[in-house]
Amino acid sequence: MRDINLRVEDGNLGLTNSTGAGTQVKIGLSNIQSTEPILITSSMSANGIKEKLGNTPLADACIDSVENGAKTIYCIGVKESEAGSVSDPVITAEGKGIFKAGGRPYNSYDVVIEITETGDCNEACYRHSIDGGKTFSEEYTVPVDGQTEIPDTGVSLTFTDDAEGSSFKEGDIYKFSTMGPAMSNSDILDAVEKLKHLKLEFEFVHIVGTTTKALWAALAYEAKNFLEFSKRPLLFICEARKPNENESADEYVTALQEDGRGINSMFIQVVAAWGRYMRMDRREQDINLAGIVTGLYCQARESQSIGEVRSFPISEEKLIRLIPERIEEYIDDLDNSRYLTFRQYVGLDGYFVYNARVMSADGSDFRYAEDTRVMNRIVNEVRKRAVNELQAEIDPGAVDVSIAVIQARLQAPIEDAIQDKIISSGKVTINTENLNILVDEKLETKVSYVPMGHIREIDVVFGLENPYAG
To answer: pTM of the prediction?
Structure first.
């Protein structure tokens, strides 16, 4: 079918091997399913987001993004393909009653159950925490049959009386953790397929939850299809896995370097930064920092690096530390492997994105998310103008006049980008040499622009000066 054919030229800068702007889609695990994307906005509280998405990883990612600048998020929930798990409880108790935990948890929780009133089932009272004891629920009475659950978590609790009575005593503590469920790559790709049919405008897609090289490669292929067939360029943001408990920083980085080989796409970004983070609802958890990253993009102009030190610090009260220990010694290695990482600077408080790297090929003009975001905006906006010119008449006796009108219309979004300071200059050129519109019925058009530059490194030379010399 005849349409606007899009192609992005790469390599024009000669590098060697050495508008729906800010609107995003999140795809992630949720026990709440909907036939339409669920809208999350910056006006919602953490509890409001959980009411819409459940107590799930998808809700957590939205909470992190909203706190860090996101305004509009469309969410697509994916069902679990692999159930979560519940650890054995660690018990500190004088009561002789039996406690067990189970169920199909919706998310990863650090659970504390505290007995607040002594007794057997139907007498004893308890309260629960899912954030390791930072915040607690109201008190509940242990049911007469001992069977209950923690609301909106998928976690079940079982209390069994001791034959001698007073089974549960005030101050008894039961601690356990859960691991959230997992999504399959096919389910994620099914959700991505749905995006092709949405009439919404959005700039990037965040896949919530850790993924692997297989999915990154599949999404690189999907990104190419979005551009070529759906006429819709976009950026996919993925999360690298968490370091294993007994894995050193060196082992972790070596494994990630191997995972990243062979992924070559300016439309794929993988966040390899993990940290201990205080969420908006005061939960302190180890998280992948992709939720923060997708919030920062909504604060930044398309051409603005979210690593800009003066503009995008993350407080140490919020981001408590990076994990694993000593990971900052390997930041350059991960950056060279094209992962997005966080770092600190000597003498400054807080944490900062190092470089917003994307998984582009060596020598690409599009090494950073800001490069891809600018290109995607220009492609989208020029394409919208170009569609209006399909089937337009060209007078063969006054070709230059007709072409000049079309060229001016296509130039308008370039002028907007210059005005918004996301590019330095740019132009639309329509090739009229050997134009045979009556036979070819096609205009050869090129859009070129000069991007904004960024300071990635500063060399400073110090020396003494003798005012009496000479």
So the answer is: 0.88
